[in-house]
Amino acid sequence: MSDWDFLQKLLDQVQEHSTVIGKIWLTVLFIFRILILGLAGESVWGDEQSDFVCNTKQPGCTNVCYDKAFPISHIRYWVLQFLFVSTPTLIYLGHVVYLSRKEEKLKKQESELRAIHSKDPKIEQALAAVEKKMSKIYMTESGRLKIRGALMWTYIISVICKSIFEAGFLVGQWYLYGFSMVPRYVCKRDPCPHQVDCFISRPTEKSIFIIFMLVMGLISLTLNLLELFHLCCKNLLSNIKKASGPAGPSQDTFVDDMVSSPYAPKHYPFLPMAESHAPSYQTYNKLSSEQNWANYCNEENLALGSGSRPLSDPYAPRPAEASAPEEKPGSRPGSSASKKQYV
């Protein structure tokens, strides 16, 4: 069992960077396959060759019949299966370790560049390049890598390879042995003089063990397919979100940008008013206009009463001025009244 410790430590590190389905797959691999094989496999299959007996005394006949019945031992076949199935996961672990070391190295470079406190364009370019590389490595707040980008594709490829290996070994087991152990095996092979009968020890117990390992293999294959479907859906949804991301600037944003320019007139929002109330500034403008017109009429009446010429309409267009002789300044009786009126 100590031979599996190194593989178990490696796969434990993978569990920290796997999905929920991937963690379940690792649990099935450890507990229900590797552990059961290590504890019960040797005791069930330990007498596989020693208790394989044929009804002949011909030297070498038993060995060749055993070789024909079991091209490879079940125990060794399952060990080989576990190694092949775990290899894509170990490759994914290598990618995780590579990205973690790369992220640490980039952080160190960034801290060194920021410690220089220089406005050299070369340093700024190097800092921008480091930040661009770091943006491609997705990290969580706890410092763990997110399954995104290139790491996502590595994970998907590893799951596909695991599924292919799992299905291939299940088909191979069916082709080599079938899914049950028969008590009697009929053999006809040189140097056996004739067709001989060979007998297998504890066939029922071995058949149960074979069926158990078959069920665990099917569960692992199903988990791999579910995880592959989950990753494809997750990747598809992320691509859809990127495609339907923030659209271009809307019309309101464009108007706000124009208004915020230094040459654009500023607009002021007004609160909505009831229909029965008129705006106060209109009443104010109307009263101001009436007061100015009343002042103008009073001044004109005062000028007519004093015998002076009437004042011209301030709102009428003025004709072209002709050169007129200068008049001597005279006293106007209405000037004081006009001043009082304006005061």
TrEMBL record:
<keyword id="KW-1133">Transmembrane helix</keyword>
<feature type="compositionally biased region" description="Low complexity">
    <location>
        <begin position="314"/>
        <end position="323"/>
    </location>
</feature>
<feature type="transmembrane region" description="Helical">
    <location>
        <begin position="78"/>
        <end position="99"/>
    </location>
</feature>
<protein>
    <recommendedName>
        <fullName>Gap junction protein</fullName>
    </recommendedName>
</protein>
<dbReference type="GO" id="GO:0005922">
    <property type="term" value="C:connexin complex"/>
</dbReference>
<feature type="transmembrane region" description="Helical">
    <location>
        <begin position="20"/>
        <end position="40"/>
    </location>
</feature>
<dbReference type="InterPro" id="IPR013092">
    <property type="entry name" value="Connexin_N"/>
</dbReference>
<keyword id="KW-1003">Cell membrane</keyword>
<feature type="transmembrane region" description="Helical">
    <location>
        <begin position="208"/>
        <end position="232"/>
    </location>
</feature>
<keyword id="KW-0965">Cell junction</keyword>
<comment type="function">
    <text>One gap junction consists of a cluster of closely packed pairs of transmembrane channels, the connexons, through which materials of low MW diffuse from one cell to a neighboring cell.</text>
</comment>
<keyword id="KW-0303">Gap junction</keyword>
<dbReference type="InterPro" id="IPR034634">
    <property type="entry name" value="Connexin_C"/>
</dbReference>
<dbReference type="InterPro" id="IPR000500">
    <property type="entry name" value="Connexin"/>
</dbReference>
<feature type="domain" description="Connexin N-terminal">
    <location>
        <begin position="43"/>
        <end position="76"/>
    </location>
</feature>
<keyword id="KW-0812">Transmembrane</keyword>
<dbReference type="InterPro" id="IPR038359">
    <property type="entry name" value="Connexin_N_sf"/>
</dbReference>
<dbReference type="GO" id="GO:0007267">
    <property type="term" value="P:cell-cell signaling"/>
</dbReference>
<dbReference type="InterPro" id="IPR017990">
    <property type="entry name" value="Connexin_CS"/>
</dbReference>
<keyword id="KW-0472">Membrane</keyword>
<comment type="similarity">
    <text>Belongs to the connexin family. Alpha-type (group II) subfamily.</text>
</comment>
<dbReference type="Pfam" id="PF00029">
    <property type="entry name" value="Connexin"/>
</dbReference>
<feature type="domain" description="Connexin cysteine-rich">
    <location>
        <begin position="165"/>
        <end position="231"/>
    </location>
</feature>
<feature type="compositionally biased region" description="Polar residues">
    <location>
        <begin position="333"/>
        <end position="343"/>
    </location>
</feature>
<feature type="region of interest" description="Disordered">
    <location>
        <begin position="305"/>
        <end position="343"/>
    </location>
</feature>
<feature type="transmembrane region" description="Helical">
    <location>
        <begin position="152"/>
        <end position="176"/>
    </location>
</feature>
<dbReference type="InterPro" id="IPR019570">
    <property type="entry name" value="Connexin_CCC"/>
</dbReference>
<comment type="subunit">
    <text>A connexon is composed of a hexamer of connexins.</text>
</comment>
<dbReference type="GO" id="GO:0005243">
    <property type="term" value="F:gap junction channel activity"/>
</dbReference>
